[in-house]
Design goal:
The complex is a heterodimer of chains A (452) and B (305).
Chain A (H helix, E strand, L loop, with lengths): L1 H30 L16 E7 L3 H17 L3 E7 L9 H6 L6 E4 L1 H9 L12 H5 L17 E8 L1 E5 H6 L9 H14 L15 H15 L17 H15 L20 E4 L2 H9 L6 E4 L14 E10 L9 H17 L2 H11 L2 E2 L11 H7 L1 H9 L3 E2 L8 H16 L5 H19 L1
Parallel strand pairs in A: 1-2, 8-10
Antiparallel strand pairs in A: 3-8, 4-8, 4-9, 5-6, 5-7
Chain B lengths: L7 H43 L2 E4 L4 E5 L3 H7 L2 H32 L6 H13 L2 H11 L6 H8 L14 H26 L3 H9 L4 H12 L1 H16 L3 H6 L11 H11 L3 H26 L5
Antiparallel strand pairs in B: 1-2
Helix pairs in contact in B: 1-13, 2-13, 3-7, 3-10, 3-12, 4-7, 8-9, 10-13, 12-13
The chains are: A alpha+beta (452), B mainly alpha (305).
Chain lengths: 452, 305
């Protein structure tokens, strides 16, 4: 009986020693765990799966699939599940996908939307990666931003300045062969087109309710009139878009509507390409769209955004829309090795997407201009630029003073919504520009006040 | 009085049989119960609790109990009241047009006319065509510069109407389009209603000297009362839930003039990411539908003699 007890105690002692040994071994293994964020070589990283959504046209969908194939040949241990982005995930319906972990790990975002995600801890700081600054230096600083906490959460991918396109036929029919530079020149053409009495208009201003309509269709006029994209004070506490010059930009639309120069329509088919209106404000994608969809023989030229009379052009004279790439955090995965692997794998894929070779292919498929600083000198982009002809070079030259939107507050989207509502009141004749903007500032200040 | 004698054997086996049948019955109703719990009771509970809390979309959890603050906001929110007004315009215009239109067409199709089956199919076609497709088609037709409706009106000298870009008539335009869409559905329902009326009753009325109008208003219409009440109640539920058409045709504009309650709910929940307040709007919609349905039932339901 006594010997059985001794045996039992001996076995217990052995078991304890073994457990101690095992735990210290495990500790040693943990101590040697790889930090995948900073690791130089990731070829021995355990197999990691990331998700990627590609957008929107058949050309880009095909390119996305090809890119995944090429990337996986370079990194066999990183599996990329590619799919076409579901509808509306650009700005509305993304959260359900994020919470259910079915979203794209590498998200195609826009600046002011980034802010909501940053505020909610959803974006991983790209500046945490050791090679980030080297990558970041290749992109135009005017098209990027560093957030107030010192981190960079997204990197510019492609951009397009918003510029005016004019129908050669309609402008020639009223004796004009160049783009108007000022409001009075613009309205002179508009009046002549109206006088033709052929049911044509000068322009069709945006009438959508969405906040981003302001960004694309009104902000370029605001920047051209004020020389700056600032709409909120630098400390992020006050809306300042009702300045004298800001009002002038909205008065431009007021004049358009009041004098019946504008076609107010939610058009499905481009009224510019069908010859209903003489001018449209669009990004570089319009060059590709005209090439693909406009009637044979449709001729056009591009021009700067008009400015108020008696005013010099400022340092910036239009809005440059930038599509960023960022990494959305994997919700529900605890901090640690697995989460870091997904971040690192996403970073490698993101870098692959913004490599010169891939950007050149994307430029060709979409007409979206890469944000690299050496675009005009880089031989990889030269054949694509040639393919688009002189108009693309002219477009890029005219848009060189484009700038991204205001980034002074986390509530950019909410403030932009108030500006869009103010603009719509003018378009629908409910208020004059000055009053509408003054009311918009009051409402925007309430938004900023709530956030403080 | 006679009794059936229950033998000892069958008395013992009966509860067991019943238990077995109960188990089988449970098996049959289980899918429905699971479906109801998952897609009705659970979301309903979440919406009610969510309306009283701050709902964090990132963690999908209620992070703070906020009491009735969302309801206070709702009562003071001009956007909500505008959406209620927009939904009411739709309710007042679309429901009578669609239901009376359906009754009228059904009455015609109940008579012996040429190609009756073809017409029955044609009137039902919009119902089986996707609402998204029809909304896009009507957006084209409603265009003020190129739309076919304004073109036809111009032939009789009518100036172009801004169907979807004039805030004062946008909701009316959407209501008219939706009434056209729904006439087919009510036509089929009323056709079934008309056909269930006994031919003997109608013959008897005629023998008694009643003319067609008297037959319709004194015999057919009273007998259609259950069908009418059913249609009104369904139309009410759908009216306060309308989303696709304003979303596609106008995006809720101009200036919020076609933002219905459900569209507002969507914007608050999925664009502003404020699920707590969106849940409050959802609860309010539920209450409005419930109260309106009860009132309508009291108002329209009649005893059939």
């Amino acid at each position: 009986m006594e010997s059985t007890g001794r045996k039992f105690r001996l076995m217990l002692a052995y078991a304890l020693v073994l457990m101690l040994l095992a735990s210290s071994f495990a500790g040693a293994v943990r101590a040697e765990a790889v930090d995948w964020i900073t690791a130089e070589d990731i070829s021995d990283m355990p197999e990691t799966t990331i998700r990627y959504w590609f957008y929107e046209s058949p050309e880009l969908t095909a390119l996305g699939a090809k890119q995944i194939e090429e990337f996986q040949a370079l990194y066999p241990n990183i599996k990329v599940h590619g799919s076409t982005a579901p509808d509306n995930t650009d700005n509305e319906m993304l959260m359900p996908y994020v919470t259910s972990r079915t979203n794209s790990n590498i998200h195609q975002s826009v600046n002011n939307e980034d802010l909501w995600y940053i505020d909610h801890g959803l974006l991983y700081p790209l500046s945490n990666f050791p090679d980030f600054e080297e990558v970041f230096a290749r992109y135009d600083p005017d098209l990027n931003y560093r957030w107030k906490d010192g981190n960079v959460y997204s990197i510019s991918w492609y951009h397009t300045p918003m510029l005016m396109y004019y129908s050669k036929e309609l402008l020639n029919s009223v004796g004009w062969d160049r783009a108007p530079e000022t409001y009075s020149e613009f309205f002179e053409i508009a009046q002549k087109i109206k006088d033709l009495g052929t049911g044509k208009w000068m322009m069709s201003p945006a009438i959508g309710e969405e906040w981003w309509q302001w960004e694309f269709a009104v902000q370029p006029f605001y920047i051209a009139a004020t020389g700056s994209s600032q709409v909120i004070s630098e400390d992020g506490t006050k809306a300042i878009f009702d300045s004298e010059k800001g009002v002038k930009a909205i008065e431009f639309f007021e004049t358009l509507v009041k004098n019946d120069y504008a076609l107010i329509e939610n058009a499905d088919i481009s009224p510019f390409q069908t010859g209903q209106i003489a001018a449209v404000i669009e990004g570089s994608w319009e060059i590709r769209s005209i090439k693909d969809n406009a009637p044979v023989g449709f001729e056009y030229f591009v021009g700067p955004v008009p400015i108020p009379d008696g005013q010099e052009r400022g340092p910036y004279d239009t809005f440059s829309f930038v599509r960023n790439l960022c990494i959305i955090e994997e919700l529900g995965v605890p901090e640690g090795e697995e989460r870091d692997r997904v971040r690192r794998a996403s970073w490698e894929f993101l870098k692959f997407l913004i490599s010169d070779e891939q950007m050149a292919q994307h430029f060709n498929a979409s007409g979206d201009i890469p944000c690299t600083v050496d675009l005009l000198e880089n031989p990889l982009f030269a054949p694509v630029l040639e393919g688009y002809g002189d108009v693309m070079k002219q477009f890029m030259e005219l848009g060189k003073n484009g700038i991204i939107g205001d980034m002074n507050s986390i509530y950019e989207v909410e403030v932009m919504d108030k500006m869009q509502q103010a603009y719509l009141k003018v378009i629908h004749g409910v208020a004059i520009a000055k009053d509408a903007l003054a009311q918009g500032v009051v409402e925007a200040d309430e938004v900023l006040e709530k956030g403080r | 009085m006679s009794y059936i004698r229950v033998t000892g054997d069958s008395a013992q086996s009966r509860p067991e049989k019943r238990k077995r049948w109960d188990r089988i019955a449970l098996l049959f109703i289980a899918p429905y119960v699971i479906f109801t719990l998952t897609f009705l009771i659970y979301p309903l509970g979440m919406a009610i609790i969510g309306s009283l809390a701050k709902w964090d979309m990132i963690s999908n959890s209620f992070v703070q109990f906020t009491g009735l603050s969302n309801y206070v906001r709702l009562v003071n929110d001009p956007k909500f009241w505008q959406s209620v007004l927009n939904s009411l315009i739709y309710f007042v215009v679309q429901i009578p047009l669609a239901i009376v239109g359906g009754m009228f067409v059904a009455n015609l199709l109940n008579k012996k006319i040429i190609a009756r089956d073809l017409f029955r199919g044609l009137y039902f076609l919009p119902v089986i065509t996707g609402s998204v497709v029809l909304a896009i088609l009507w957006r084209w037709m409603y265009q003020s510069s190129n739309g076919i409706i304004n073109y036809l009106l111009s032939l009789i000298g009518v100036e172009p109407v801004k169907w979807l870009t004039d805030a004062s008539i946008t909701m009316l335009s959407i209501s008219l389009m939706k009434a056209w869409m729904d006439v087919g559905f009510y036509t089929i329902v009323f056709l079934a209603g008309y056909q269930s009326i006994s031919a003997e009753l109608l013959d008897a009325a005629k023998v008694d000297g009643a003319n067609d109008i008297q037959v319709y208003f004194k015999i057919k219409l009273p007998l259609l009362n259950p069908t009418i009440v059913f249609c009104i109640m369904m139309a009410t539920i759908w009216a306060f839930q309308i989303f696709n058409e304003p979303y596609i045709m106008t995006g809720g504009g101009p200036l919020g003039s076609s933002t219905t309650m459900t569209l507002l709910l969507y914007k608050v929940g999925f664009i502003e990411h404020n699920m707590g307040y969106a849940s409050t709007i959802g609860v309010a919609i539920g209450i409005i539908i419930f109260v309106t349905s009860i009132l309508e039932r009291r108002l329209f339901e009649r005893e059939i003699e």
